[in-house]
Amino acid sequence: MFLVADNLQITNPVFQEAVVKRDPIPVQTCVKRCVAAGAEAIDINAGPLTKEPEERMTFLVQSVQAVTKLPLYLDTSNATALEAGLATCRNRAVINGISLEPQKLEKILPLAAEYGVDVIGYLLTPTGQVPKTADERLAVATELFEKTDRAGLSPQRVIVDPVVPPLMWEDGIEQAMAFLDTIRTLPDLLGFPVRTIAGLSNLTTGSGPKEKKLRVERTYLAMLAACGLSEILLNIFHEETVRVARTCKILRESKIFTWEAIP
Hints:
The protein is of the alpha/beta class. It folds into two domains: about 1-90; about 95-255, TIM Barrel (Alpha-Beta Barrel). Helices cover about 50% and strands about 15% of the residues. The chain has helices at about 15-20, 25-35, 55-65, 80-90, 100-105, 110-115, 135-150, 170-190, 210-225, 240-255, and strands at about 1-10, 40-45, 70-75, 95-100, 120, 160, 195-200, 230-235. It has an eight-stranded parallel β-barrel with strand order 1-2-3-4-5-6-7-8, surrounded by four helices. Helix 3 packs parallel to helix 4 and helix 9 packs parallel to helix 10. The radius of gyration is 18 Å and the shape is globular. The model has no long low-confidence stretch (mean pLDDT about 95).
């Protein structure tokens, strides 16, 4: 299971100020900590970037790639900012992301083909709604792959995100189980291996006891691994969660078990 750090989020006031002042130090300090904690990629969650989109995304990408060679997941709904980030990025880039929403198909999907990068595809309806059942998610996935195929992307370049629901939603548990059913079923339905990703932090969004939230996070992570999840987007500073992820990877991929391999 590939570990993508979600710690660099523009909603954090520290990073907001850093972007406004063009001060790379707070951004780079965070990235260095993420690398030290075991991140295998960095998600740059820049938000919509309504002000100075090109300049701000360029600043973020340059700041991050100055201190790491890890892949960068460029996370914004602003196509102008995204293109600036792709043009600047020297590391392997991944677009985060697209969906069946018309604006994203029109503005963002072509960038994946133009720049030859992988793209995360969210299983959302054309109106941006989260499907309630596994069957609904699978129907969206089929249509999404039709769209990416027409755009010239091979299936191997698409990373499917069925959208982890907050458990606090009225049907949160039901939808969390539907997520598992979706990633388990996708390869058989489509007839080829499917790369998948989950935003783990979404699961425990909202108020709740910290220790219980972390316990739920780790438990669901193991369930995701058992269903064949490829990548996990998570708070890389949750040390025990990272250890669980690494242990899941060992148990799922190793041929010979040794206690020394367990983190």
